[in-house]
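Honest question from a wet-lab person: if I give you the sequences of every part of a complex, can you actually get the arrangement of the whole thing, not just the pieces? Trying it with mine:
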Amino acid sequence: MTATRRGLTTAATNTPESLTHYKITLRRSAISLPESFKATLVSLGIHRRMQTVYHPHTPECAGKILKVKELVEVENVPVSAVRTKTEQRQERKAMRGYKVVRSTLS
Amino acid sequence: MFGAFRASSVAHGGLLWKTPWKLSTTRKANVRSRLKKVDAVIEAVRASGMQCTALAKALELPKEHEMLPRDKYTVFSPHARGYRKGVHKVPKWTRLTLRTNPEGF
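Yes, you can. This is the full assembly:
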């Protein structure tokens, strides 16, 4: 299932935007694993489960991801998909205010 | 030997946890699913086009569909009979890379 999704992501490279960043999500915690795993996650800027961070494609980042490959989920994304922590929170938020759907008076 | 006060592991120790010697069908399915997820991570890093030692090492690992059932569900153990034991006997086994065997095993 996941492999198919990866295949589609790779197939999307023919679109003008090239994939330049890793989207890294921590799925499994590093609790009770050796300190080096936790240190790797900290150096990736991850400190809690289900947190998502974006990093540009570099060999250093690739090595860090592979160190913790059992714990994370990785996707290649274009620059336009990169979100900061604040932007991610804004996207999660519900819309403010309300919209009148219908009135019972008329 | 019989009766309410017979000697048994539970009666002596109070608490007894038993680890089954082999994985159930469901647990084996979960193993395969985890292996596939790790394969997806390696594939994503490979697709990014970066070159590094960690990637070269990761690409040498067998993929989930290339592994024998023996390698998926058991690991080498120097002490076990037949040099194999269930992979679930390894501490933290769901978050470790346990895909390859030592030379000759």
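Two things worth pointing out. The first strand of chain A starts at residue 21 and ends at 26. Chain A has four helices and three strands.
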